[in-house]
Amino acid sequence: MTKTLHHRACHLCEAICGLTIETQTEADGSTQIRSIKGDAQDTFSRGHICPKAVALQDIQNDPDRLRQPMRRVGSEWQAIDWDEAFALVAERLSEIQTRHGQNAVATYHGNPSVHNYGLMTHSNYFLGLLKTRSRFSATSVDQLPHHLVSQQMYGHGFLLPICDIDHTDFMLILGGNPLASNGSIMTVPDVEKRLKAIKARGGKLVVVDPRRSETAAIADQHVFVRPGEDAALLFGLLNTLFDEGLTRASHLPVAGLDEARQAIASFTAEAMSARCGVPAEQIRQLARDFAAADKAVCYGRMGVSTQAFGTLCHWLIQLINLVTGNLDREGGALCTEAAIDLTTSSSGTHFDRWRSRVSGLPEYAGELPVAALAEEVLTPGEGQIRALITVAGNPVLSTPNGRQLEQALDGLEFMLSIDPYINETTRYADLILPPTGPLEHDHYDMTFNSFAVRNVARFNQPVLEKPVGTLHDWEIFVGLAKAFAGKLGVELKPTMTPAQIVDRGLRAGRYGDESEQKLSVVKLLEHPHGIDLGALKPNLAERLNTPGRQVQAAPALLLSDLPRFAAQPVAKAGELVLIGRRHVRSNNSWMHNYHRLVKGKPRHQLLMNPEDLLQRGLSDGQLVQVRSRVGAIEVEVAASEEMMPGVVSLPHGWGHARPGVQLAIASAQPGASANDLTDERQLDALSGNAALNGVPVEVSAA
Ligand SMILES: Nc1nc2c(c(=O)[nH]1)N[C@H]1C(S)=C(S)[C@@H](COP(=O)(O)OP(=O)(O)OC[C@H]3O[C@@H](n4cnc5c(=O)[nH]c(N)nc54)[C@H](O)[C@@H]3O)O[C@H]1N2
Ligand SMILES: Nc1nc2c(c(=O)[nH]1)N[C@H]1C(S)=C(S)[C@@H](COP(=O)(O)OP(=O)(O)OC[C@H]3O[C@@H](n4cnc5c(=O)[nH]c(N)nc54)[C@H](O)[C@@H]3O)O[C@H]1N2
Ligand code: SF4
Ligand SMILES: [Mo]
């Protein structure tokens, strides 16, 4: 019996905490995980860990996790060989594309795709051969407005200014709850301590949220805002900065600032107050407080991106940082200088090169908004989607109007899922190809090292051996590519392992000098607790990729959305709207079958203000029906003073019990799906991003 200590970053959320994992190998050669702890020697995460990381052993050991390819025959699942599976995919997809055209095969990439580097390096090796424009991902139920604003203002969708949380004196958060999510588009392990440190050094934290969230609860100030109306508040803030002379010059070259100022001038704090539900004087004071801080940063996340004016919100956030001199400034918002630079790729530079067939929604970076997926399958005509490939996702529970999507999936000619589980989506697949477990492969975080609050890098070696007969995600894509290229009779370019690709990326990157000393995988392996490459620093001026290399303060696209904003009516009294929430023990649509995480009292009730309950004659703990334009669910309601009156909150990713069918994973806690209520027609019309927050609902006794 031998015990081994492994050091590895957790890949389950954006915080990439360092872990210390102890394994024990028995005389018979079998290895078990003994313990998972935070790695105190990781200078970035400083020993921080959350309950999800401990559940990595549940992913590893889960008897419900698939370990071999499965083919669906009627309602039965049968194991099949890898080669047989690859041949079947090549056969079916080439046949469908020959009959119906290339766009008839669609793809969906779910959230874990960006947490697994093999999927990032190799999924296109196969999917690129399909040459389909019907590509979708979780981006358009998430951060699409962030990318679009950066693309418009700075020339690249990945030039995302990150909060310099460790050096700021004033942090204004809208629609983010890092105490539950552990931070997003801000890789920030140990976020609670970092937020508390702002206050400890005399700074201030302000949270704008329709719920008094866990983060709002530790803030100096919490502001309730009407869901979907943050743009009104932000217009009020920006106009106050302008008309009270609270701006500060930026060192950056800027075009269009006067134009932007004129275009928004009528959206004053006074004019916007009724829409956002914040008194004008409070808006003005918040602007003054922000401007008075030496170093301040305004940050918005999910709550302000997945709403009707998500792109306007993120534009205004950039402008607030810009005009107060906090963009590209220490203690403000700065672009991370990652060891592998994603901003050199061309994929974040395009928008609206084509549109979706049915609703005419714009492409971004080669993808269409996922809210359009179901209608593209269900609407007959040339270009109709007939086959779908899902990769690491569960769009039935994650995208608006999940029931409509189920109906669409049921009618496909062929569906392939690359996923370790039969879930509410993959149950419709003809074939599921499961990859190795996360601890069985190596990992380099290409995504989240790029959006971190310090410049960091780390190469993670596998903790456990890959079982005989299994394939990593990237190897599955290589197998699929070979079979499909063979079928088409095209020659496939040779490929490398993900580690080799990362090594090349590191050597081409900005760290180390040209000789032997360039940062490389070998060099990173000398730093098992990760390597710190320094604090964020100004760099945007030389990275701008816009015409004239100037910050574009007034992109025509953004200005074109102002009439839509102005035309939006003020919410009527008595209207109820739905928003989302996250919990530290839940991870999007999966891991709900791990006792370690779901134990204790349920955490997926509908939260409602006691006044709203009273008005409807409802009581705490009662089963209620929640109804929207697209559907209805039944769920337990919990009275909560945290909620702004007129707003109810329900986490997404639940709803594992689908009407009339068995649970995909028998041991999962069911819950109800927020996306059986969200509306595929409610969008941020500019980007096509889903408006998952601010959905009109009615609540009554079940
Ligand atoms: N109403 C509402 N809806 C939302 C949100 C919200 O706030 N409110 N949030 C949205 C956001 S931000 C996101 S990102 C999406 C997330 O939604 P999805 O994109 O659907 O992602 P997950 O739910 O994380 O998908 C999990 C699936 O990935 C599989 N998986 C895990 N690891 C791997 C791996 O390494 N390889 C492979 N091949 N598969 C793997 C799991 O088995 C599981 O089936 O949901 C969105 N939906
Ligand atoms: N434990 C855990 N961590 C996660 C995830 C998870 O599922 N579980 N998911 C990961 C993913 S995929 C992502 S994208 C990130 C997201 O990370 P965050 O952006 O921090 O997401 P949430 O925790 O959903 O916080 C969104 C907040 O917005 C508020 N909100 C809703 N509507 C509005 C609105 O109209 N205006 C304003 N101002 N606020 C609003 C909600 O009340 C909520 O407090 O979290 C990641 N981390
Ligand atoms: S916060 Fe939790 S899930 Fe996220 S990286 Fe850290 S340990 Fe993993
Ligand atoms: Mo996300």
Overall body shape: globular
**How far do the termini sit from each other?**
56 Å
Low-confidence stretches: none
Helix content: 25-40%
Structural class: alpha/beta
Which ions, cofactors or small ligands are bound in this entry?
ligand MGD, iron/sulfur cluster, molybdenum atom
Looking at the structure, the CATH topology of the largest domain is: Dimethylsulfoxide Reductase, domain 2
Rounded to an integer, what's the Rg over CA atoms?
A: 25 Å
In the residues, how many domains can be counted?
Answer: 5
Largest sheet, in brief, is: 7 strands, mixed
Our estimate of the beta-strand percent is 15-25%
pLDDT averaged residue by residue:
97
Reading off the top of the CATH hierarchy, the class of the largest domain is best stated as Alpha Beta
The assembly state of the depicted protein chains is: single chain
